[in-house]
Amino acid sequence: MIKGKVAVVTGSTSGIGLAYARAFAKEGANIVINGLGDAAAIETERAKIESEFGVKCLYSPANMLKHEEIEGMIKLAETELGSCDILVNNAGIQHVAPIEEFPIDKWNMIIAINLSAAFFAMRAAIPGMKARKWGRIINTASAHALVASPFKSAYVSAKHGIAGLTKTAALETAQFGITVNAICPGYVWTPLVEKQIPDTAKARGMTEEQVKKDVLLAAQPTKEFVTVEEVAALAVFLASDNARSITGSMQQIDGGWVAE
Ligand code: NAD
């Protein structure tokens, strides 16, 4: 049922987004990947998805700060691959600082990339989904869509906003065969997180294991990272027929974080 569908995944040049793209390709979906990064590295990943899974995979360089480019990304899927059936809003950035010192440009960028971009992509994709009477919209939110942490005002605000946007879109599309859900991961093992560990260990005089458990995973009861493959498997389930009655939901995958 995912086979032959078209999945557009924003922010899929690394981390969780790349895992989503590969997981949907493994199920036989054609893919539009998107994100920033080194052109040659992106082309390698794009070609690998095509050769490994025998599907079509296009790259959209759309910048999530620009609504015209986001609309162009959806149009690319519709014109080159025939439709946008599965939309995964995943691109995201972070900045950590107290509110009184938080740079205004960082606030604006985080709200634009982590929240407004999802609205623009949904706005462009929903008409086609409604016309075809089938669609899956999956928004990567965060545990920070449900609880806050200090010094992450923009990120927590954007992620709480994604929760509201997800519920609103779910209500508007419920009678059109479309589901809209948010995935709320805790700490996920991505290259971004991995790269911080050796430096943090050095700075704090800790072992790398101590950094993982006592610094990064202090809030996560399992004291283990969620993996990108686990998050992607949840997205594949949400796109399946068996998940057709799940809409407007926040899917926690956080090792128990928000249960505390
Ligand atoms: P990542 O940095 O590995 O990936 C972020 C992706 O977004 C990259 O592909 C990047 O190129 C893209 N991106 C950033 N700015 C962009 C822009 N202006 N236009 C287009 N693409 C842009 O990080 P990740 O950990 O894989 O995060 C992916 C999503 O998961 C984010 O929304 C993040 O908030 C969320 N998340 C991550 C974690 C975690 O612990 N890693 C936890 C909860 C939620």
Please give a structural write-up:
By secondary structure, the protein is α/β, with parallel strands linked by helices. It contains 8 helices and 9 strands. The protein has helices at residues 15-26, 39-53, 67-81, 104-132, 153-173, 191-204, 208-216, 228-239, and strands at 6-9, 30-34, 57-60, 86-89, 135-140, 178-185, 188-189, 226-227, 250-253. A 7-stranded parallel beta sheet has the order 3-2-1-4-5-6-9, with helices on both faces. A two-stranded parallel sheet has the order 7-8. It is globular and about 55 Å long. The chain binds nicotinamide-adenine-dinucleotide. Nicotinamide-adenine-dinucleotide binds at residues 11-17, 34-37, 63-65, 90-93, 113-114, 140, 142, 185, 187-188, 190-193. Nicotinamide-adenine-dinucleotide is lined by residues 11-17, 34-37, 63-65, 90-93, 113-114, 140, 142, 185, 187-188, 190-193.
Structural class: alpha/beta
Give the bound compounds.
Answer: nicotinamide-adenine-dinucleotide
**Terminal Cα span:** 37 Å
Give me the Rg, rounded: 18 Å
Largest sheet data: 7 strands, parallel
Order of helices and strands: EHEHEHEHEHEEHHEHE
Low-confidence stretches: none
* Helix percentage range: 40-55%
Shape: globular
Strands of the biggest beta sheet: in what spatial order?
3-2-1-4-5-6-9
> Count of DSSP E strands?
9
Count, helices: 8
Beta-strand portion reads: 15-25%
Mean pLDDT over the full residue set = 96
Topology, please?
Layout: E1 6-9, H1 15-26, E2 30-34, H2 39-53, E3 57-60, H3 67-81, E4 86-89, H4 104-132, E5 135-140, H5 153-173, E6 178-185, E7 188-189, H6 191-204, H7 208-216, E8 226-227, H8 228-239, E9 250-253
Parallel strand pairs: 1-2, 1-4, 2-3, 4-5, 5-6, 6-9, 7-8
Helix pairs in contact: 1-2, 1-8, 3-4, 4-5, 6-7
Nicotinamide-adenine-dinucleotide (NAD) binds next to α1, α4 and α6.
